[in-house]
From TrEMBL:
Organism field: Caenorhabditis elegans
Gene Ontology CC entries for this record: membrane raft; plasma membrane
Keyword Transmembrane helix applies: yes
Name this polypeptide is given: Peptidase_M13_N domain-containing protein
High-level lineage: Eukaryota, Metazoa, Ecdysozoa, Nematoda, Chromadorea
UniProt family annotation: Belongs to the peptidase M13 family.
Zinc in keyword set: yes
TM spans (from-to): 12-34
GO molecular function, one term: metal ion binding
Length: 1589
C-alpha cells in the first residue's frame, strides 16, 4: 500500500467507500479523515493543558487493506449494493442538510483522534457563540421583529400590547439610563421600608438604615413584629432573606383540593451555598467590593459622605451574617436532595406554636409577604379553615435561627448588622438603578432569585441573565436587551413569539406532531432500557412504567396563550397603561409575577400541563412535582432541531436533550416522585441498593475530572460528583434513550441521505448522532475563573466533561467510531440505566416481589361458568369507557359507552319474550290445558294475539263493541250530567248521591281513583287482625309532583296534547264534532285537576309520617264529617264480596288525610260544575283509553314513569300508558306484558316454568339468590352493631327487625300448585266467545275484587308477594316487613349463578341492600319486626338518624345537572329523594360487606377472560356491576328537569356518584386520591359509624 501522505488520499477514499458499502467499518473512514492532514502518531490534549492522554494507536499502520483500487460505483456493482442515498439539490431538505454541513464544518477538527478526544474532534475549530446562545439570539431577533410590527400590535390582545408598551419604554430607558439610574428608585424603596407598617405596630416596624445614615444606630433586636415586617416586606418584592417563602405543588397531594402548598424554607443568601463552603475567601472579596461600591453610590446620590471605617465594619458584619445564614442556618444541597425530609406540613396554629411566635410574628409576615395577592389571605389566616400546608422545609434550622436573633446569641450577630442586612438586600436587588461606579462598570445584583410558578426559587448568577439594565446607546442593542427583558412577562411574550415563528395553524400542528414523535420515541427508548435492567425488581419496574405512562409532554407553548380571552384574563392583574413610566411598569410586572405565584394557593388541584417557564427561551425542563417534560418553542429550532434535518442529527441534539430531561424523572431526586407528581418513592430497597451503586459510580467518575490545578485550587479543582450527579445521570440516561429512539426511528422510516459534502458524506448516521450530541456543548475554552465558578455553583459539569463522561459510558460510541480501548472508549465504565442481558435459561421463574401467586385465569373446564364470565365481559364492553378517570366521573367511566335502554327496560323486554315463547311452546300446552288458571291466561294471550294481529282487526273489535261509549253512558247515568266537553251544554254540580255514585263507579268498577282514593292495606296497628280499608286524598292522573307549579309548566303542554288527542279520537268514533272552544275547556279542566292536586293534597314529604294517617272512622260518621258525598251510595259500588261488610254503619275505615278531605268537603259547593264533571269524564276516557281505536299514538311524548325499585300498595290499577318501545318480536311479548300485568300469578307460573323447569332448578336459584340476600341481611346486622349514634336498646330492636324479615324469592310456592292457582282465579270466568277486550274488562274487575277481598282475611299474609313474579323489580314492604325478589330480576345484568360474587353482589346484592335499607329509612323505621306501625327508635337514636338523613339531603341537594340560568330549580331535591338515596347508600355498604364475607369464606374467583376487563380486580367489578344497574343514555335537559321536579329518585348519574363518594371502599378499589371528586375529604356516613380515627 502506498505510504502515508496527501498523495494517496483519493485512492484511499475510493477504497474506503467500497468497504463502507459492504461492512460498514466506519472507523476506517474516520481514520482516513483524521490522517488527511496528520501523518504522525496522535497525542491529543483534552483541554486547557491539564489532562493529556497519550495515544498509542497509529491509524495508518494499524489496518492494512488490499491495495487494489476499486471505484465506488464499481464496488457497488460488484457487490450489488446500492450507494447511500443523496439529497436532491434545490429542495428545502437540501438547504437544511447544507446547514448541518456548515454547522459541523465550523467546529470539527478532523486531525484529532475521536477515540481519545471526541470533544476536541467535534469542537476543536469552534469559534463563536455556544449553541444555546445562538438559539437565544435567534429567538430574541424573532421577538424584536414581532414587537416592532405595528400592524400586528394594533390588533393584538391587550397583554401583547402591554408587552409592546413595556418594550418601548424599556428601549427609551436603556438609551437614557443615566436619567433612570439616579438612585431615586432605590431611595424610594428604602424610605418605604423605613416608614414601617402603619397601624397598631408602627413603632415596632420603623428602623433606620445605619449603614447609610451613620448618625443612627440600632442597638436592640427587632421584636417579633419588626422581624416579621422586615422579612415579609422584602419577600413581597421578590427578595427572600432569613426566611424564604414560596409556592410549590402540595407534594403529597397535588391532585387534591389543596393542590399547592406554602413553602417556608431556609435563608436565601447573596450566593449559593457552595460558594460559602468551597471558596468563601473569593466570595468575601467580591461581596466586599460590590457592597462597598453600591453603598458609596447610594450615599453620593443622597449627598451623604460615609466614614470608610464605619462602612467597612458594617460591610463585614453583614457578610458575616450572610455567611452564618448560608452555613450554620442552612442545610447543604446534597442532603436536601432528599425531599421527604423537607415535607413538614403545619396548620397556622401549629406554625405559631412550633416556630417561635414570640420571636417572629407570622401574622405580620404572612399578609405582607403575599404583596398584592391579598385574596389568598382568607385561606392563609383562617385558623379554622384547616389549611394544613404550611410546609416548613428545615424546621430545625428555622428554630435555631429564630432563637439566635437576640442579645444572648454567641455568634456575633448584632441588631445593627441584622437591620443593615435587610436594608442592603433591598438595595442590592435594585442596584441596577444606581449610577455606575467611577470605573464605568455596572455593579449588578450579586445574584438574582428566579421564581418559577412551580418549584422552589433558585439562584441565577448575573452572567446567566441575557440582558443588563444599563446605558445602551445603540438602538439595535437596546431593542435586543429589552426584548429579552419582556420574557419576564412570560406568556404575553410567548404569544407574540409564537405568532412570529409559527404564524399558521399548520405550522403549529407540524412542529408539535414532529417533536411529539421525537419525544415519544425517547420515552419508548427509555422504557426499553427499564425493560432490560436486571437489577430492578418487577414491582419497581411497575413504578417506573407508571412514571413513563403518566408523563406529561408539553411542546412549544401552552394552548391557552393563543386564546385572546384566556390570555387577557390571566394578565388582568398586570394593569399598567401605555403612559406609565418604565419604572412603574417594571414594578407592576414584578408584582404581577409574584401575584401569579401566590394565586396558585387558591387554584385547587395542580395543573400537570402547566409549562412553568417561558416558551421563548432556549431550554427544556423536567418537573418532578408534575412528572412533566417541557420543550419550549425557543429550543425547537436550529442548532438543536429542524424538521428537515437527518434523524440522526435531530435525535443527537434535541433527542438527547429530551432524553436528558426524561432521565431526570429517574435520577436520585426523580425516583422520589411517582407518575402523577406525588412525593412517593416507588423504588424498593433491593432496587435502591443497585441504583445507589449506579449513582455512586457516576459520582466517582465525574469527581475524577479535574480541569484546574489541585495545588492551586485544592478541592475546588475537581468536579463535585455528588453536586452534579443528577445532571450527569440525566446526560447518560438521555443519550442511551435518544440513541435507541433514533435507531427505532430509522428502522421504521428508513435511512436518511448522506450529507451533501465531499468529506462529511462519509459520516454514517450513527457517527452523525454523536457529532450532533457533542456539537451542542461546543464553546470557547473557559478561563480558570469560569471553571471555578461552574465547579462551585453549577449542578452541571463543564461542557467537555458532559461529553467525555457520557460517551465513555456508552459503548455504542466505541462501535460507531471503531475505537480500541481509549480515553473515550474505556474498558471499564459506568452502566447508567442499562445493564447486561438476562442470561437465565430453561423454564422461567415467574413470581411477584412478595412471592405470591397471581389470581388464576378462568378456564373452559367449566363451560357454563366460562360462558357466564364471557357474558359479563360482553355487558361491560357495551358500556365501559376507560378513557374517563373513574375518580373524577365514575358514572361516565362505567356507562360512558352505554347506548341502549336502561337495564330494567332491557331485562323486562327479554323476560316478556321468554313468557311468550313459553306460552307458545308446543311441549308446554299439556301443562296449560291441565291447569284451569293457565287455560284462562292462554285464552287471554290468544285473544290478544288475534285482536292485535293488525290495527284493522283491533279497531274492528273496538268499533263494533264500542266499549268506551258504554262506560261513558254508565257515568252519565250515575252522575246525572252530560259530557259537555264533547257534547256541549252546561252541567250542574252533582248532588251528594250523584257524586257518590260517580266516584264509586270510577274507583270500584273501573279502577280509576279521582277526588278520593279507596284502598286496602294491612291493619297497621296490629296486622294479626287482617286488613283494613283506607280512604285517602285525591288521586290525579299523573304523579302528584308533576302538578307543582314549576313542573306543571313543563308537563301540562304534553298532558294537554295527549288528553286532547284521546278526546278527539273518542268524539270521532262517536261521530261527534267537538264544540268550539273544546281545547280551551280541556285546558281549564286540566288546570282544575292541578288545583285539586295541589290545594287538597298533603305533600309527599309530610305523608312520609304514617301515624298521622291512621284515623279510624265509622262509615256512619263519614256522612256527618264529609257531607259533600253520600258515602253509603259510594261504598255500595264495592265488590259484592265485601259490600255488606263495608256498608255496615259500624264498620271503620281509616281516613288518611282528615284535614284535606274536610277542606274539600267544605269547598265542594264552590267547585265549578263544568270543570268537575268534565274532569271525571276525561279521567274515565284516559283510564280506558285502550278501548279507543289507535289510542297508543296519543301517548307519544308523555313523560315516562321513572324506573325504580320498590312497590306501593296505594295504586290498584296502573295508568294505561303504553310501555316504551321495546325490540319485541311480533306482538307476542306485548300480549305477554298484558298477561303479566293482569294475570300476574298465572303468568308468573308460566315464567317460572320457563326459567326453572326442574325442582332442582328452583332449589338452586333459591339457594344462590337466597344466600346473597341472607348475607346482605347479616351484613346489615353488623352495620347496625357498629353504629355510634344508636342506643343499645334500639340496636336490639333493629336487629330483631332484620331477623324477622320475610324473604320472598323468585315466586310464591302456591302458584306451582294447579289447584291453588285455579282457586285464586276461580271467580274469573272467560267465555269462549269473549274477545280480547271482553277479557280485559273482566280482568280489571277481577283485580279490583282481589284487592278488596282481602278485607275478608282473618289475618295478614306476610308471605304475600304483592307483585308479578315475572317483573324486573324488587321491593321491601314495611307493613309486612318483607323483602321480595321476583324471578324476573334474578337474571343478568343483576344476577347469574355462575358469575363471580363481585358481580352478583354489585348487582343483585346491591338491589337487596337497597330494598333492605328501606326498612330502616325515614319511613321504614316507623314499622316494627312483624310489620306493625310501631315506633321503635328512641329519641337520641332518632336524632342521630335525622342527622344522617340531613347530611344525605344536603349532599344530594348540591348535585346540579342543569344550568341555573335556564332551569330553576336546577338541582336535585334532597328532601324529596332522601328515602331512595339513603337506600342506595346503605345498600351499597351492606352489599359490599356481604360480598367480602362471601369472598373470605369461598376464596378468590378467577378474573374475567378478557384482555381489558381481566385487569379489573373483583372489588372494582363490584362497583362496575353496581353502576351498570343505573346506566342510561343521558336524558335531555327538559327530561332531567322533569325528573328532579317530580321523581323520588335522583338521576342515575347521582345514584352512582352520590353513593360512591360516601363509600371509602370505592376510593380504595380505584386508588382515588383523597380530595378527588369520588373521594371527598368530607362525606356522609350512611348506616355506618364515623371514621375510626
Amino acid at each position: 500500500m502506498a505510504g502515508p501522505g496527501s498523495g494517496n488520499i483519493v485512492h484511499t477514499l475510493l477504497l474506503v467507500a467500497g468497504i463502507v458499502l459492504t461492512a460498514g467499518v466506519l472507523g476506517v473512514v474516520i481514520a482516513i479523515l483524521v490522517n488527511e492532514n496528520n501523518t504522525n502518531t496522535n497525542t491529543n490534549t483534552i483541554y486547557n493543558g491539564t489532562n493529556t492522554y497519550n495515544s498509542t494507536i497509529q491509524y495508518n499502520s494499524t489496518y492494512v487493506y488490499n491495495s487494489t483500487i476499486i471505484e465506488i460505483d464499481i464496488a457497488s456493482k460488484v457487490l450489488n449494493v446500492a450507494q447511500p442515498a443523496k439529497v436532491s439539490p434545490g429542495t428545502d431538505k437540501y438547504n437544511s442538510y447544507q446547514q448541518v454541513v456548515q454547522l459541523f464544518k465550523a467546529s470539527v477538527n478532523l486531525s484529532v483522534d475521536p477515540c481519545n478526544d471526541f470533544y476536541a474532534y467535534t469542537c476543536g475549530n469552534f469559534k463563536g457563540d455556544m449553541s444555546f446562545d445562538i438559539s437565544d439570539n435567534s429567538n430574541t431577533n424573532d421577538m424584536v421583529t414581532r414587537l416592532t410590527n405595528d400592524t400586528y400590535i394594533s390588533t393584538a390582545p391587550l397583554p401583547v400590547q402591554q408587552t409592546r408598551w413595556y418594550f418601548d419604554t424599556c428601549v427609551n430607558a436603556r438609551q437614557n439610563w443615566n436619567t433612570i439610574a439616579d438612585g431615586s428608585v432605590v431611595t424610594a424603596a428604602i424610605n418605604q421600608l423605613a416608614a414601617g407598617n402603619p397601624g397598631k405596630h408602627e413603632n415596632s416596624t420603623k428602623f433606620p438604615f445605619p449603614m447609610l445614615d451613620q448618625k443612627t444606630d440600632v442597638t436592640t433586636f427587632p421584636d417579633r413584629f419588626g422581624l416579621g415586617y422586615l422579612t415579609g416586606s422584602l419577600t413581597a418584592q421578590g427578595v427572600d432573606t432569613i426566611i424564604s417563602a414560596g409556592v410549590d405543588t402540595n407534594w403529597k397531594d397535588p391532585a387534591g383540593p389543596e393542590g399547592f402548598a406554602y413553602l417556608i424554607d431556609q435563608p436565601t443568601t447573596f450566593a449559593p451555598n457552595t460558594y460559602y463552603l468551597k471558596d468563601f475567601d473569593a466570595l468575601n472579596a467580591s461581596l466586599t467590593y460590590q457592597i462597598t461600591e453600591n453603598m458609596l453610590q447610594l450615599a453620593k446620590v443622597q449627598n451623604k459622605t460615609l466614614d470608610a471605617n464605619i462602612l467597612a465594619k458594617d460591610v463585614q458584619d453583614i457578610i458575616k451574617l450572610d455567611y452564618l445564614l448560608a452555613t450554620k442556618f442552612s442545610t447543604d444541597d446534597t442532603t436536601r436532595r432528599q425531599y421527604d425530609r423537607s415535607y413538614n406540613p403545619n396548620t397556622l396554629p401549629q406554625l405559631l406554636t412550633q416556630y417561635h411566635k414570640d420571636v417572629f410574628s407570622w401574622h405580620m409576615f404572612l399578609p405582607i409577604a403575599v404583596g398584592t395577592a391579598e385574596h389568598v389571605l382568607d385561606k392563609l389566616l383562617d385558623q379554622g379553615s384547616g389549611y394544613n400546608y404550611y410546609i416548613t422545609m428545615e424546621p430545625t434550622k428555622l428554630n435555631m435561627l429564630l432563637t439566635s436573633l437576640n442579645k444572648d446569641n454567641t455568634l456575633g450577630i448584632t441588631p445593627r448588622a441584622l437591620v443593615n442586612y435587610f436594608y442592603y438586600r433591598l438595595v442590592d436587588s435594585l442596584s441596577e438603578f444606581l449610577p455606575a461606579p467611577p470605573a464605568g462598570n455596572m455593579i449588578r445584583p450579586f445574584v438574582k432569585i428566579e421564581r418559577q410558578p412551580v418549584g422552589r426559587p433558585r439562584h441565577v448568577l448575573p452572567e446567566d441573565r441575557k440582558y443588563e439594565r444599563k446605558l445602551i446607546e445603540d438602538l439595535t442593542e437596546a431593542q435586543y436587551s429589552c426584548a429579552q427583558e419582556t420574557i419576564d412577562i412570560q406568556y404575553a411574550n410567548a404569544r407574540l413569539f409564537i405568532d412570529q415563528i409559527y404564524p399558521t395553524a399548520t405550522d403549529r400542528k407540524n412542529v408539535r406532531e414532529h417533536v411529539a414523535k421525537v419525544a415519544s420515541s425517547i420515552v419508548i427508548g427509555f422504557r426499553s432500557m427499564i425493560d432490560q435492567l436486571n437489577w430492578m425488581t418487577p414491582s419497581t419496574k411497575k413504578g417506573a412504567y407508571n412514571k413513563i405512562e403518566n408523563l406529561v409532554k408539553n411542546i412549544a407553548y401552552p394552548d391557552w396563550i393563543t386564546d385572546d380571552a384566556q390570555l387577557t384574563a390571566y394578565h388582568a392583574p398586570m394593569n399598567f397603561t401605555k403612559t406609565d413610566t418604565y419604572v412603574d411598569m417594571f414594578f407592576n410586572v414584578q408584582n404581577f409575577n409574584l401575584y401569579s405565584q401566590w394565586d396558585q394557593l387558591v387554584q385547587g388541584p395542580a395543573d400537570r400541563t402547566g409549562f412553568n417557564g417561558p416558551p421563548g427561551i432556549t431550554n427544556a425542563w423536567y418537573q418532578p412535582e408534575l412528572n412533566s417534560i417541557t420543550f419550549p418553542a425557543g429550543i425547537l429550532k436550529k442548532p438543536f432541531y429542524d424538521f428537515n434535518w437527518p434523524a440522526s442529527v435531530n435525535f443527537g441534539a434535541m433527542g438527547v436533550i429530551a432524553g436528558h430531561e426524561l432521565t431526570h424523572g429517574f435520577d436520585d431526586q426523580g425516583v422520589q416522585w411517582n407518575g402523577v407528581g406525588t412525593l412517593s418513592g416507588w423504588m424498593d430497597a433491593t432496587s435502591k441498593v443497585s441504583f445507589t451503586n449506579m449513582a455512586q459510580c457516576v459520582v466517582n467518575e465525574y469527581s475524577g475530572f479535574c480541569p484546574l490545578d489541585k495545588a492551586t485550587y485544592g478541592s475546588a479543582a475537581c468536579i463535585d460528583g455528588a453536586q452534579t450527579q443528577g445532571e450527569n445521570i440525566a446526560d447518560n440516561g438521555g443519550i442511551h434513550s435518544a440513541f435507541r429512539a433514533y435507531k427505532n426511528y430509522v428502522d421504521l422510516y428508513g435511512p436518511d441521505p448522506v450529507l451533501p459534502d465531499p468529506q462529511l458524506q462519509y459520516f454514517n448516521p450513527d457517527q452523525l448522532f454523536f457529532l450532533s450530541f457533542a456539537q451542542v456543548w461546543c464553546q470557547m475554552p473557559y478561563t480558570d475563573a469560569q471553571f471555578l465558578r461552574q465547579i462551585l455553583v453549577d449542578v452541571h459539569s463543564p461542557s467537555i466533561y458532559r461529553v467525555l463522561g457520557t460517551i465513555q459510558n456508552f459503548p455504542a460510541f466505541k462501535t460507531a467510531f471503531n475505537c480500541p480501548s481509549s480515553t473515550y472508549a474505556p474498558d471499564n465504565h459506568c452502566n447508567v440505566w442499562v445493564s447486561d442481558i438476562d442470561t437465565t435459561f430453561g423454564l422461567p421463574n415467574v413470581k411477584t416481589d412478595i412471592n405470591v401467586v397471581p389470581e388464576a385465569p378462568i378456564t373452559s373446564t367449566n363451560v357454563d361458568k366460562m360462558n357466564a364470565y364471557q357474558m359479563a365481559v360482553d355487558y361491560y364492553a357495551k358500556s365501559v369507557n376507560t378513557a374517563i378517570d373513574p375518580c373524577d366521573d365514575f358514572y361516565s367511566y362505567a356507562c360512558g359507552n352505554f347506548n341502549q335502554s336502561v337495564s330494567f327496560y332491557t331485562a323486562r323486554a327479554q323476560n316478556l319474550v321468554y313468557m311468550a315463547q313459553k306460552l307458545e311452546d308446543p311441549t308446554y300446552q299439556t301443562t296449560i290445558n291441565s291447569s284451569p288458571a293457565l287455560k284462562k291466561e292462554k285464552q287471554l294471550y290468544n285473544a290478544c294475539l288475534t285482536a292485535t294481529a293488525s290495527s284493522q282487526s283491533e279497531d274492528q273489535i273496538l268499533i263494533s263493541k264500542n266499549y268506551i261509549q258504554t262506560k261513558v253512558d254508565d257515568l252519565k247515568t250515575l252522575i246525572g250530567q252530560d259530557f259537555t266537553l264533547v257534547n256541549g251544554g252546561a252541567p250542574k254540580l252533582p248532588s251528594a248521591k250523584q257524586i257518590g255514585d260517580a266516584l264509586g263507579y270510577l274507583s270500584f268498577e273501573q279502577g280509576i281513583d279521582t277526588l278520593i282514593s279507596p284502598l286496602v292495606d294491612t291493619y297497621w296497628i296490629d296486622n294479626s287482625k287482617g286488613y283494613q280499608m283506607f280512604i285517602d286524598q285525591n288521586t290525579a292522573y299523573l304523579s302528584k309532583t308533576y302538578y307543582q307549579p314549576a313542573a306543571w309548566k313543563i308537563e301540562k303542554p304534553k298532558y294537554l296534547k295527549m288528553a286532547l288527542d284521546v278526546v278527539t279520537r273518542y268524539a270521532r268514533e262517536q261521530n261527534i264534532t267537538l264544540p268550539a272552544g273544546a281545547s280551551d275547556l280541556l285546558s281549564n279542566v286540566l288546570d282544575y285537576e292541578q288545583n285539586i292536586a295541589v290545594k287538597y293534597s298533603t305533600d309527599d314529604n309530610t305523608r312520609r309520617q304514617f301515624q298521622r294517617s291512621w284515623n279510624l272512622t265509622k262509615t256512619s260518621d263519614l256522612v256527618t264529617k264529609y257531607n259533600f258525598m253520600d258515602w253509603m251510595t259510594y261504598l255500595s259500588h264495592a265488590p259484592n264480596a265485601v259490600k255488606a261488610k263495608i256498608t255496615d254503619a259500624n264498620y271503620q275505615v281509616s281516613v288518611m288525610e282528615v284535614d284535606r278531605l274536610t277542606h274539600f268537603s267544605a269547598d265542594y259547593l264552590q267547585q265549578s260544575p263544568e270543570l268537575l264533571v268534565n274532569l271525571l269524564f276525561v279521567r274515565l276516557l284516559l283510564g280506558n283509553a285502550q278501548y279507543i281505536p289507535s289510542y297508543a299514538s296519543a301517548f307519544r311524548g308523555m313523560t315516562d314513569e321513572s324506573i325504580f325499585l320498590g312497590l306501593s300498595r296505594r295504586k290498584t290499577i296502573p295508568n294505561h300508558i303504553p310501555p316504551p318501545n321495546f325490540d319485541l318480536e311480533a306482538n307476542g311479548p306485548a300480549c305477554a306484558s298484558v298477561a303479566n300485568n293482569l294475570m300476574q300469578f298465572a303468568n308468573g307460573r308460566v315464567f317460572v316454568d320457563y326459567m326453572y323447569p326442574t325442582a332442582q332448578d328452583v332449589t338452586n336459584i333459591r339457594k344462590s339468590a337466597g344466600g346473597i340476600i341472607k348475607n346482605v341481611i347479616s351484613s346489615f346486622q353488623g352495620m347496625i352493631d357498629q353504629l355510634d349514634w344508636m342506643a343499645p336498646d334500639t340496636k336490639q330492636k333493629a336487629y330483631a327487625k332484620t331477623v324477622q324479615i320475610q324473604q320472598n324469592i323468585a315466586f310464591p310456592d302456591w302458584i306451582k300448585n294447579d289447584t291453588l292457582l285455579g282457586n285464586y282465579y276461580s271467580t274469573l270466568v272467560i267465555a269462549d266467545s269473549d274477545n280480547f277486550y271482553d277479557i280485559y274488562d273482566k280482568l280489571i274487575k277481577f283485580n279490583i275484587f282481589v284487592q278488596y277481598n282481602q278485607l275478608n282475611a282473618a289475618q295478614t299474609d306476610r308471605t304475600d308477594f304483592l307483585g308479578q313474579p315475572g317483573t324486573v323489580n324488587a321491593w321491601y314492604q314495611p307493613e309486612l316487613n318483607s323483602i321480595t325478589f321476583p324471578a324476573g330480576i334474578l337474571v343478568p345484568p343483576y344476577f347469574n349463578p355462575n358469575w363471580p360474587p363481585s358481580i352478583n353482589y354489585g348487582g343483585m346484592g346491591l338491589v337487596a341492600g337497597h330494598e333492605l335499607t328501606h326498612g330502616f329509612d325515614d319511613q321504614g323505621v316507623q314499622w316494627g319486626p312483624t310489620g306493625n306501625l310501631a315506633r321503635w327508635m328512641d329519641d337520641n337514636s332518632m336524632a342521630g338518624f335525622k342527622n344522617m338523613s340531613q347530611c344525605v339531603i344536603n349532599e344530594y341537594s348540591g348535585f346540579c345537572p342543569l344550568n341555573a340560568t335556564n332551569y330553576s330549580p336546577n338541582c336535585v331535591k334532597g328532601p324529596q329523594t332522601q328515602g331512595e338515596n339513603i337506600a342506595d347508600n346503605g345498600g351499597v355498604h351492606a352489599a359490599f360487606n356481604a360480598y367480602k364475607t362471601h369472598q373470605s369464606l369461598d376464596g378468590p374467583d378467577p378474573r374475567l377472560p378478557d384482555r381489558l376487563f381481566g385487569q379489573f380486580t373483583h372489588d372494582q367489578l363490584f362497583f362496575m356491576s353496581f353502576a351498570q344497574v343505573w346506566c342510561e343514555v343521558r336524558r335531555t335537559d327538559d327530561a332531567l328537569y322533569t325528573q328532579i321536579m317530580v321523581d323520588p329518585h335522583s338521576p342515575s348519574m347521582y345514584r352512582v356518584y352520590g353513593t360512591i363518594q360516601n363509600f371509602p371502599a370505592f376510593q380504595t378499589a380505584f386508588n382515588c386520591p383523597l380530595g378527588s371528586k369520588s373521594a371527598p375529604e368530607q362525606h356522609c356516613e350512611v348506616w355506618v359509624p364515623g371514621k375510626y380515627q
